[in-house]
Amino acid sequence: MSGLRAQKKADKNRRILEAATTLFRQVGYDSARIEDIAEMAGVSVGTFYNYYKNKGDMLMATVSMEVEEVLAAGDELIGRELDNVSDALSELIGKYYDHSLTYLSKEMWRTAMSLSIGQPETPFSKRYTALDHRLSKQVCDLFRSLQSRGIVRKDVDCDATGELVFNNVNMMFIEFVKDEEMDEADLKAEVERQCVPLIKLMSQV
Amino acid sequence: MSGLRAQKKADKNRRILEAATTLFRQVGYDSARIEDIAEMAGVSVGTFYNYYKNKGDMLMATVSMEVEEVLAAGDELIGRELDNVSDALSELIGKYYDHSLTYLSKEMWRTAMSLSIGQPETPFSKRYTALDHRLSKQVCDLFRSLQSRGIVRKDVDCDATGELVFNNVNMMFIEFVKDEEMDEADLKAEVERQCVPLIKLMSQV
DNA sequence: CTCAAAAAATGAACGGGTTCAATATTTTTT
DNA sequence: AAAAAATATTGAACCCGTTCATTTTTTGAG
């Protein structure tokens, strides 16, 4: 019987993850001390560090979950037959933004982004960056899909434009999480404002 | 004689700033301990905190200096009479990037950005964000200047497009400072690749 | 010059993330 | 089933940024 160890491990892993996400949302990422998380999970501080490399790593589990779900929703959208760039993009971006606060608070997003920029060599940062790239790629894919159906001009470079749009969407999202006052409607309005001119230019005449 | 106090204060301020920037560049921001900075400046740890609110605040002096100089160079450029969007933009962005590592290392930039996102309510973040906005505004101004001289199409929204381009330039700069391998040429090539299609679209036909 | 008030300097102590040597538990071997 | 080996747990100790009560220095009034 060598299942005992694996069983306990899985159980503890789950309890730690649960305790951490609960506390992050309840008292905020910064105020949630490792000691508290460990206590709530019924393990010692040392054990916490056997399961997660550090506090930031705990976030990645949640960030990953959030972004994976968003990516899946996006793929579903690309499969559909949309008939103009503006609506298609609005809907894709809407899915990104609507989902963004499902598991994560603004503070958690800020921390994730902050870690990803501040410590680019960590696994955390590399995973975060990879997720970002997949999102960026998805915007490119949407454009390509629309282009193949004659909705986007043939001479538009879908990769360049997709990245351009995604970078913008992402930058606006950073402003969004930096500002507790800003709500989703404000965010969407800002993106709309900045991207509309570009979309007009790339639409079939 | 009440100049003694002010004199000493200015002197210590200078010594602390000098020690900090030296150490930040010499051993890196993270590895430079407050204790070391204080010792090199010939003051105590407590005194360090009388002069700067915290470690991150030390960075802002340097970041400010860097960005102010870049902004001045940019203004000079806008004054000149350039005759096509692509060259004008390349030159402006070139000025941004060429100057970027004059006083700051990549690690220092990363830290500044990381702090600015992670702790948006601090004076540090607010100052950083304000500098960013001025840079963004400058790109808009360049476009408007070109538009008034018939080089950019009349129907282009200079603010929307300027922000779009700046956001992209900024995001590429983030990638640049995140990656120690990446050099300035790589950075410029990436921006070129992403922005060229947009520039074509906005140029006068 | 003296002294009380104001300003500045100090470093020990604190807090919280992280490490690690010692201890405990589980698995494997015989 | 006992011993040895492998694996997991533990919490005290460490590091470093930051704070704050105490001490030192400067100033201006009498």
Name of the CATH architecture of the largest domain in chain A: Orthogonal Bundle
The protein's oligomeric status is homodimer
Q: From the helix content, strand content and strand pairing of chain A, which structural class follows?
A: mainly alpha
CATH topology of the largest domain in chain A: Tetracycline Repressor, domain 2
Overview of the molecule:
Two copies of one chain form a homodimer. The mean pLDDT of chain A is 93. Chain A is 78% helix and 0% strand. The first copy, chain A, is elongated and about 65 Å long. Chain A folds into two domains: 1-52, Arc Repressor Mutant, subunit A (Orthogonal Bundle), CATH 1.10.10; 56-202, Tetracycline Repressor, domain 2 (Orthogonal Bundle). In chain A, helix 4 packs antiparallel against helix 5, helix 6 (106-118) packs across helix 8 (158-178) and helix 8 (158-178) packs antiparallel against helix 9. With 205 residues, chain A is mainly alpha-helical. Chain A has nine helices and no strands. The N and C termini of chain A lie far apart (70 Å). Chain A binds chain B through residues 110-111, 113-115, 117-120, 125, 129, 156-157, 160-161, 163-164, 167-168, 170-172, 174, 177-179, 193-198, 201-202, and chain B through 110-111, 113-115, 117-118, 120, 125, 129, 156-157, 160-161, 163-164, 167-168, 170-172, 174, 177-179, 193-198, 201-202. Chain A binds a DNA duplex (30 and 30 nucleotides) through residues 1-2, 4-5, 8-9, 33-35, 43-47, 49-50, 54-55.
